């Protein structure tokens, strides 16, 4: 998985370049949930890196992160929220209203050599 190969410096740059970041802090002050968003603030917002601490999974943390994003003041005019996810996470996101039926649009990727 790509996230496991990220360096701390790359992660800092990645988060700094994101337009909206949300986090949830646990009782001991530790970060237990995180997600970031890139957007044009009107039509599209792409959600990346929805992360819940392993010991917090199954406690509604992912739902809370998505609610924080969907209700964030800077994202109030967004027409479409989109995200990347692994196939095993599709049922979770479908419960939140996401679908893979996007009118035939496909994700394309080009490696930056």
Explained architecture:
The protein has 3 helices and 4 strands. Strands 1-2-3-4 form a 4-stranded mixed beta sheet, with helices on one face. Helix content is 22%, strand content 25%. The chain has one domain: 3-Layer(aba) Sandwich (Aminopeptidase). By secondary structure, it is an alpha+beta fold. It is globular. The longest helix has 10 residues.
The gist of it:
By secondary structure, this protein is an alpha+beta fold. Helix content is 22%, strand content 25%. Helix 2 links the parallel strand 3 and strand 4 (80-83).
| Lateral arrangement of strands in the main beta sheet | 1-2-3-4
Task: Indicate the radius of gyration in whole angstroms.
Answer: 15 Å
- Name the CATH superfamily classification: Gcn5-related N-acetyltransferase (GNAT)
The total of beta strands comes to 4
Give the overall average pLDDT.
Answer: 89
* Helix content bin: 10-25%
* Helix vs. strand class: alpha+beta
């Amino acid at each position: 998985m790509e996230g496991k190969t990220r360096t701390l410096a790359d992660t800092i740059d990645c988060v700094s370049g994101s337009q909206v970041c949300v986090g949830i802090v646990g009782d001991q002050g530790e970060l237990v949930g995180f997600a970031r968003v890139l957007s044009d603030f009107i039509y599209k917002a792409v959600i990346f890196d929805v992360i819940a601490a392993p010991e917090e999974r199954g406690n509604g943390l992912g739902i809370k992160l998505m609610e924080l994003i969907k209700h964030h003041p800077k994202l109030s005019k967004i027409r479409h929220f989109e995200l990347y996810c692994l196939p095993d996470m599709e049922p979770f996101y479908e419960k939140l209203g996401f679908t893979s039926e996007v009118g035939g649009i496909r994700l394309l990727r080009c490696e930056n050599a």
